[in-house]
Every structure is written in structure tokens, then in C-alpha cells.
Amino acid sequence: MRALIFDSVFDSYRGVVSYVRVFSGEIKKGDQIFLMQTKSRGEAIEVGYFSPKLIPHTPLSAGEIGYIVTGFRDVSEARVGDTITLEKNPSDSPLPGYKE
């Protein structure tokens, strides 16, 4: 599974919410995640899509755009352009184009 973070916001109740586009595979609630550039590990507490509010829906599959509630306490752990992958079956390489 590979998903590109195109924005992240901090929610005081749920932590960092990352807005993503899934390029391959799928992610569902409860999956352990790993961010390839920042080396952050966490859990997909909630996944879903926009309509225009956040609507919980699992799984998010390849080609879909949605959000992942990570529970991180700092937005710097989920930087724009980073690649999210699954911890148990990580991707070999991040999506191209990441710059700090």
C-alpha cells in the first residue's frame, strides 16, 4: 500500500489528520502505518473520504482520495509529500518527488 499525503491538519481530539491519495493497495481502520520519509509509526485510527465533511469509510483503495486519522501529536510527523505505507508489509520505495 502506498498513499501520498497532500495535506495534514491537527485536530485537538483526534491528533493529526492526513489527507491522502492512495496509489496502490488499500488501507483500513486499525492498520499499523509507517511514514517513509519521517520514519513515523502509528495506527490508522479512522479512514474515510470527503463529502464535503469527513465521512468514515473503510477501506480506502487505489485511486481514491480521503483521509487517515493518525493520532500523531505533531503535524511534522506527517509532512506533505511523504508516503504512507503499511508497517506489516511496507513498500520497497516511497512515491517520487518528496522534498522537505
Write the layout of secondary structure elements.
Layout (H helix, E strand, L loop, with lengths): L1 E10 L3 E10 L1 E2 L4 E4 L5 E3 L2 E5 L3 E3 L3 E2 L3 E5 L13 E4 L14
Question: What's the alpha carbon Rg, rounded to whole Å?
Answer: 12 Å
Helix content estimate: under 10%
Number of helices: 0
Shape field: globular
Count of extended strands:
10
The N- to C-terminal Cα distance equals 22 Å
Give start-end ranges of low-pLDDT stretches.
none
H/E element sequence? EEEEEEEEEE
Task: Classify the beta-strand content into a percent band.
Answer: over 45%
Q: How is the main sheet built?
A: 8 strands, antiparallel
Q: What structural class do helix, strand and pairing data support? A: mainly beta
Trace the largest sheet across and list its strands.
5-4-10-1-2-9-6-7
Structure description:
With 100 residues, the chain is an all-beta fold. Helix content is 0%, strand content 48%. It contains no helices and ten strands. The radius of gyration is 12 Å and the shape is globular. The strands form two sheets. An eight-stranded antiparallel sheet has the order 5-4-10-1-2-9-6-7, with no helix packed on it.
